Amino acid sequence: MKDHVDGFVAPGFEEVRAEFERNFTEHGEIGAAVAAYWRGEQVVDLWGGRRTPEGDDPWDADTMVVAMSGTKGLAAMTLAVANARGWLDYDAPVARYWPEFAQNGKARVTVRQLLGHEAGLVLLDEKLTIARMRDLDDVARLLARQKPAWPPGTRHGYHTMSLGLYMQELIRHVDPAKRTLGRFFHEEIAEPLGLEFYIGLPRDVPHDRLAKVKTLSPMRAILGLRKTPAAMLRKLFKPGWVIFRSFLLADLDWNNRRMLEIELPAGNGVGTARAMARAYSAFAEGGAEIGITPDTFARVTAPPPGAHPKDEVLGVPSYFSLGFLRPGPEVSFGSSPRAFGAPGAGGSFAFADPDAHLGYAYLMNKLDFYLVNDPREQALREAVYRAIARRTARRSLEVTAGAWVRWPGRVPRRPSAARSRSADWRSVAPAPFPDGSG
């Protein structure tokens, strides 16, 4: 079956569709979707390819796929809502809300340190299973007794799966209704915004709406080594393999429906790119739609700490704050340092850019080996920014032309044809591209 591409792009965003189609013809894309909202309006909503790697089932408008660590960003939004309501202080000790957490030297660990991957709680002293994850009280007892691997606040290391488990307990302890994070997200964010995204997939979602993931097989891993940063390779092959151990579940399987039905707020959210882009769009516009206050928004967009950028788990610099990935010297996205989001294993990415008024998301079912800036995703993101630059420049020209016509003391007239032709959009500096060019 020839890979189909369907969907919508607003006038001026046609290049995004061209890049999306190129992913299938030149980059081996199997199935994917990309969406963007600019200034609160949908400007990109594309999907295409195949829902399953080995079959011909098409990826349709309502196809959903596991977002991997992209789930972390939406989980972090739930904590932002709790902060806006006065239930959670980012600078308070976690133990204020969850007294049992204070065990083994964690009494002073703050919520901010925990969400910034600074608490040293990457691993657990017991393996989890899908069955055990159904008893959150048992999981909470396991989490509470863990001992930090380093003095909290002195370093940071990617809490691959554990971060979501700790986020879960924060929400369960501060929410007056004692809801799980997945239910909280659904009722307080997904329903108000009309999102089809779940942290804990409902059993009544038809299986044929779910994309099957092409995982990272050993042979593909060998071929993918050239795409992996050298510092990360050293971590990968170091005895103990902390990166792999940090996934925590003994029976982890992204194509197992049972695994998608439990709540893993750091990695098993299921939904559409459209939903993720819409959620980030709401935040890019300040979050008032879901009750985010200006003070909370200022906290979310404030610069992340940069005292110790090297990630103890990934081996490369990374920048996190309040549960979100943030731009930094080695991790560039968005038009300013105020952008925030979350990448997912295999190449997916979603983020908000408040200064560009952009919410963006890309999801796919073929996992690749780029830590950030997968060429499939980066090409789409940069095309979105170029489209915004053109639209912004065109709007500026229209305003300039209108001012010329209305200039006091002049006979109203249109600019000359020569003037109109010379005032090309390329003469206006575009917004910075996510990779720092432009």
Write structural notes for this entry.
It is a single chain. By secondary structure, this protein is α+β, with helices and mostly antiparallel strands. It has a domain at 5-87 and 156-371: Beta-lactamase. The protein is built from 15 helices and eleven strands. It has helices at 14-26, 71-84, 94-97, 111-115, 136-144, 162-174, 181-193, 218-223, 230-236, 242-245, 257-261, 273-284, 294-301, 375-405, 417-422; strands at 5-9, 31-38, 41-49, 65-66, 197-198, 270-271, 320-321, 324-325, 340-343, 349-353, 358-364. The protein has a six-stranded antiparallel beta sheet with strand order 1-3-2-11-10-9, sandwiched between helices. A hairpin with a 2-residue loop joins strand 7 (320-321) and strand 8 (324-325). The longest helix has 31 residues, at 375-405. It starts with a strand and ends in a 16-residue tail after the last helix.
CATH architecture of the domain at 5-87 and 156-371: 3-Layer(aba) Sandwich
Terminal Cα separation, in Å?
A: 38 Å
Name the overall outline.
globular
**Spatial arrangement of strands, main beta sheet:** 1-3-2-11-10-9
Structural class: alpha+beta
| Estimated radius of gyration | 23 Å
CATH topology of the domain at 5-87 and 156-371: Beta-lactamase
Percentage of residues in DSSP E strands: 5-15%
Number of separate strands: 11
Number of separate helices: 15
